[in-house]
């Protein structure tokens, strides 16, 4: 029979095939509910940090799975907070963590006395940037904490699961260690010859599937999570973009534009903006801006470096952005501007509007950034050109609001989308998946 200590040993042994990686460990090795004290689960880096692709770590998370349920985040530490906190754990569980160098970053959980909540499968996700400032996610191998002994067959299944998780960021090196796994399988063949052939065949199929998963992850970026923080984007005609980690709220501002003289409202021909955009009711002219608002903190990594703007939400910008605003006057005669739903930060009156933005210019627009590409989306152009996004086709567009003839349109500072005031023109960048 194999005790639960074997699971931890296998996780540690796998590091040899990759030289170094983030691993989960558990102490003490044997855990009994209601008896074992100070059960500690630790995620830290093992081996030489020079082998890691991570240049900077933004977040470390521990995820837990029970039975057939999906993995859920139970604790995390972020670099902008640097204090670990529980997400869904008993209040008795102590959480500690720190983000610094790769070798010095860690997060750990400690149960003063083992309860049923300690058992299950655990994984550690480490999110950060590589040397090219692209966002990457490294996942540790899975460990399993159980009270019951496991058979040789169970160990083989655990080996397969260990390889599946390690495959996400160590594919080539894991494949290079085939001989080590073959030796393990051969040692167990004597006891379970009939089962081994089935396991080996299944292992090859799983490896092929994992290679395809890795290719999809590399192509789509950070698991379809939008970056961290609260923010808003203009809504395209297809609706709000895909966001695994948060729920979009929607709303719009109906601007009352010049209606007593000739009106110069304009948008790009064949615009992809959500409709209605331009509207005339009687003698009054209106323009709409529809928004997708992420009001709850997205679990994604930090926003990538580049040159672009988004709408501000929550009175401050995500890390790396500077805030600015555009103010413009609307039709004063019979002012009929309205707002509906959830909007980004702004000041909205009957005859004037002020919208706040978050802008950055800390990398070339030609250096493609990774954002979720499952659905189209808009960014604002900043400093002269549209930011390139990996796997996406970008189309320049614009909106122009014919403000009141006696307007006092104004920029608050330099951190606003490209365009001009008097009348207000805003330059947009529309992104759709490249076919």
Automatic annotation (TrEMBL):
UniProt-listed InterPro entries: ApeC (IPR031569)
UniProt keyword terms in alphabetical order: Signal
Domain Apextrin C-terminal: 226-431
Superkingdom in the source lineage: Eukaryota
Signal peptide feature range: 1-20
Entry keyword Signal: yes
Keyword hit for Aminoacyl-tRNA synthetase: no
Protein name: Apextrin C-terminal domain-containing protein
Organism, scientific name: Lymnaea stagnalis (Great pond snail)
């Amino acid at each position: 029979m194999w005790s639960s200590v074997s699971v931890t040993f296998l996780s540690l042994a796998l590091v040899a095939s990759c030289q170094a990686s983030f691993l989960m460990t558990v102490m003490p090795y044997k855990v009994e509910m209601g008896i074992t004290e100070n059960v500690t689960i630790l995620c830290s880096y093992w081996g030489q940090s020079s082998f890691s692709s991570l240049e900077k770590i933004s977040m470390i998370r521990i995820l837990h799975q029970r039975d057939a349920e999906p993995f859920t985040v139970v604790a995390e530490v972020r670099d902008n907070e640097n204090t670990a906190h529980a997400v869904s754990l008993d209040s008795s569980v102590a959480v500690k963590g720190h983000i610094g160098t790769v070798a010095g970053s860690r997060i750990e959980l400690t149960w003063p006395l083992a309860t049923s909540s300690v058992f299950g499968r655990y994984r550690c996700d480490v999110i950060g940037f590589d040397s090219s400032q692209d966002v990457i996610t490294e996942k540790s191998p899975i460990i399993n904490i159980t009270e019951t002994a496991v058979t040789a067959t169970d160990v083989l299944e655990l080996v397969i699961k260990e390889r599946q998780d390690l495959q996400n960021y160590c594919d080539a090196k894991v494949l290079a260690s085939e001989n080590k796994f073959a030796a393990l399988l051969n040692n167990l063949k004597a006891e379970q010859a009939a089962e081994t052939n089935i396991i080996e065949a299944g292992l090859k199929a799983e490896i092929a599937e994992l290679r395809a998963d890795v290719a999809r992850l590399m192509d789509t970026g950070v698991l379809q999570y939008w970056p961290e923080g609260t923010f808003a984007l203009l809504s395209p005609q297809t609706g709000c973009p895909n966001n695994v980690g948060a729920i979009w709220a929607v709303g719009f501002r109906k601007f009352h534009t010049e209606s007593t003289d000739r009106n110069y409202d304009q948008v790009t021909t064949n615009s992809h903006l959500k409709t209605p955009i331009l509207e005339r009711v009687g003698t009054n002219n209106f323009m709409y801006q529809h928004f997708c608002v992420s009001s709850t903190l997205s679990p994604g990594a930090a926003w990538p470096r580049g040159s672009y703007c988004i709408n501000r939400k929550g009175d401050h910008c995500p890390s790396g952005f500077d805030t600015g605003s555009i103010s413009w006057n609307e039709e004063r005669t019979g002012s009929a501007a309205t707002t509906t739903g959830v909007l980004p930060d702004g000041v909205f009156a009957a005859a004037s509007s002020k919208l706040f933005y978050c802008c950055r210019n800390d990398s070339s627009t030609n250096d493609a950034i990774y954002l979720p590409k499952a659905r189209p989306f808009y960014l604002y152009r900043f400093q002269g050109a549209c930011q390139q996004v990996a796997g996406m086709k970008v189309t320049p567009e614009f909106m122009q609001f014919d403000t009141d003839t006696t307007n006092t349109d104004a920029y608050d500072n330099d951190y606003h989308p490209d365009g001009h005031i008097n009348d207000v023109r805003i330059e947009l960048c529309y992104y759709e998946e490249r076919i």
